[in-house]
Specification:
By secondary structure, the protein is of the alpha/beta class. The protein has helices at about 25-40, 55-70, 85-95, 125-135, 155-165, 170-175, 190-200, 225-235, 260-275, 290-300, 310-320, 345-360, 360-375, 385-400, 460-475; strands spanning about 10-15, 45-50, 75-80, 100, 110-120, 120-125, 150, 180, 200-205, 240-245, 250-255, 260, 280-285, 305, 325, 335, 375-385, 405, 405-415, 420, 435-440, 450-455.
């Protein structure tokens, strides 16, 4: 059955183009969304639909529009390639019933997907996504007369909003030059256009439309951002700002070509928001993110919420209480004054704003953080292993482990995966040293186990990650 392969997760459904991501299955997904909107939202408010630079995205978006319109739901269809946060912004500002984004974000080129955005301008709550999934395979009644499909350019209002959110005059006066890498994705020309108008020096790379994403996945981490590292130094830029395939996640490179991971980006932004902006609200972070954020919150007297892995937890908290900023390990950071949504483009502009205000390059900002809050180094390994080995590793970890790499286990936390806090003598002489912790987390949908570690030095992280991989592979029969 066509509907058997369509499953809605945190944000929606994704699949391999022409294998399971077909017109027929996109219609199944669209029908479920239409049934949900008709039953639970004000369908007359309509649904916004947009698409990214992937192969067939516009065509798949037209299929979704056709299904919704025939069910009597008015459609506002994007006139051009649109970043995911721009769609979310349009949904909220137009008071639409919801939004559909055709994208597979940071996945390889052969993938595409259907993301659903709720009326508040962010990812659907788990209850909303479960409800949509419940309609999969259900018949969809056709309206006596199809609703209108209106073509709208969602980008100008969104671009104006993020440009207003930052101090472009300060960024211009700073004299800093920026490298912008949009990874062939939907962020193309957005920051470049803002910087051009504001007379901020920049160089933009990988901004052509190429659905093959040649040689990379559009994910702003190594090895996919080696070109950014090279270009930053070659063009003598003070920072490299990177967005993923649909521009909701951020990555960065400092002036020396060093990768600045998402944890450091979050920490840089958080310190600036608390110290300079002094905006109210709590802070949230996922279970697999740096504990440097805890130290920053403690200094400024802000409550920190630790939650499961996935931006849906950030969004839920933002809808329930006053949250200033929240984020996850993969570069998804949201500021509630803007949207309950990840926004790689806004966060790129904010990094430039921080540099201008602090009069420091990105590398200098990170060094200052490490100096004040202690050196925090981080690493992640994705282990593509069979299901039996994955389950064996998790079972053995749950059964009780006394040490990794000769480091004694002090305590264990199990909020989302299994996290071991380790007694690390090599950190004893390091001022304000980071805690050493190791997290094992199994994917619920793939033969994949992710291993995360934070410690006081690059060497410690490497040693613990190596020991963790050896532990996982102990159960191998090969």
């Amino acid at each position: 059955m066509a509907d058997s392969v369509v499953k809605f997760g945190t944000d929606g459904w994704r699949g391999i183009i022409a294998d399971d991501f077909t017109y027929a299955n996109v219609r199944v997904a669209a029908s479920a969304i239409a049934n949900y909107v008709l039953a639970h939202e004000d369908a007359s408010a309509g649904v916004c639909i947009a698409y990214d630079t992937r192969f067939g995205s516009r065509s798949f978006a037209n299929v979704v529009a056709d299904v919704l319109a025939k069910a009597g739901i008015p459609v506002a269809m994007a006139a051009d390639i649109t970043p995911t946060p721009a769609l979310s912004y349009a949904v909220r500002e137009r008071k639409a019933a919801g939004g559909v984004m055709i994208t597979s974000s940071h996945n390889p080129a052969e993938w595409n997907g259907v993301k659903y955005k709720a009326s508040y301008g962010g990812s659907g709550k788990p209850s909303i996504m479960a409800s949509i999934e419940g309609y999969l395979g259900e018949p969809l009644a056709q309206a006596a007369r199809p609703a209108a499909i209106e073509t709208v350019d969602f980008n100008p209002d969104y671009v104006a909003a993020i440009a207003r959110f930052v101090d472009l005059d300060a960024i211009r006066k700073s004299g800093y030059k920026f490298l912008i890498d949009v990874m062939y994705g939907a962020g193309r020309n957005v920051i470049a256009g803002i910087f051009t108008e504001a007379h901020v020096p920049f160089v933009e790379i990988r901004n052509e439309i190429n659905p093959a994403f040649p040689g990379i996945n559009p994910e702003p981490i190594l090895p996919h951002i080696r070109a950014t590292q090279i270009a930053v130094t070659a063009e003598k830029c003070d920072a490299g700002l990177i967005t993923d395939g649909d521009a909701d996640r951020i990555g960065a490179v400092d002036e020396h070509g060093n990768v600045v991971d998402a944890h450091k980006i979050f920490a840089v932004l958080l310190k600036w928001l608390l110290e300079r902006k002094k905006w109210p609200g709590d802070v949230t972070r996922a279970f697999n993110t740096t504990k440097m954020l805890d130290r920053i919150c403690a200094k400024y007297g802000r409550r920190l919420h630790e939650h499961g892995i996935g931006f849906k937890y950030v969004c839920d908290l933002m809808l329930e209480q006053e949250i200033l900023v929240g984020g996850e390990e993969s570069g998804g950071i949201g500021i509630s004054r803007h949207l309950p949504e990840r926004d790689g483009l806004l966060n790129s502009l904010l990094l430039a704003n921080v540099m201008a205000d602090e009069k420091k390059t990105l590398g200098e900002l990170v060094a200052a953080l490490q100096q004040e809050f202690g050196e925090h180094q981080y690493g992640r390994v994705d282990m593509h292993i069979d299901e039996a080995l994955k389950q064996s590793a998790i079972s053995r970890a749950k059964a009780g482990v006394t040490d990794f790499a000769g480091l004694k286990v002090l305590r264990v936390e199990t909020l989302d995966g299994i996290k071991f806090f380790l007694d690390n003598p090599s950190c004893a002489g390091v001022p304000n040293a980071a805690e050493t912790w190791l997290l094992l987390r199994a994917s619920g949908t793939e033969p994949l186990l992710r291993v995360y570690c934070e410690s006081c030095s690059v060497e410690s992280v490497a040693r613990v990650l190596e020991a963790a991989q050896a532990f996982v592979l102990q159960g191998s029969t090969v």
